[in-house]
Amino acid sequence: MIKIYTSPSCSSCKKVKKWFDDQGIPYIEKNIFSSVLDPNELKEMLMKSENGTEDIISTRSKIAKEQNVDFDEMTISQLIEFIRKNPSVLKRPIMVDDRRIQVGYNEEEISTFIPRARRIALENCSKNCCEDCSFHSEK
Fold first, then answer.
1. Is residue 132 pLDDT above 70, yes or no?
2. In 5, 31, 36, 138, which residue has its Cα 20 to 30 A from 96's Cα atom?
3. Which residues span the domain enclosing 73?
4. CATH of the domain at 23
5. Is 10 an active-site residue?
6. Looking at the chain, which runs of residues are DSSP E strands?
């Protein structure tokens, strides 16, 4: 199941949720401010990110600047505890499934979350196809 980590005022988060809803792809939304982040979920994000903290942490966040935090000097445990106490340091939205992670709303990259069979059908479907098209009739 896809998890989307969001915050209420995030416009990109709203776009991502709308995209998943429009595609009919189920997801679990996790508001980073109203629920305590599980350490295992944070470890999973870090393991799946190509560039570690750089991919999921906003070094421009207010708390990171105020405390002059050096994320590279933290142990994994320290980093996870810091994120749990200060979830605003996370970039948003963050989408995670069993194989991948994506941060932010990117219209091209988000399509990797479309199930494989639907992606193949979409790729083989011309833009001016007939109304019988199985891809379009599912929508």
1. no
2. 138
3. 2-113
4. 3.40.30.10
5. yes
6. 2-6, 27-31, 94-96, 101-103
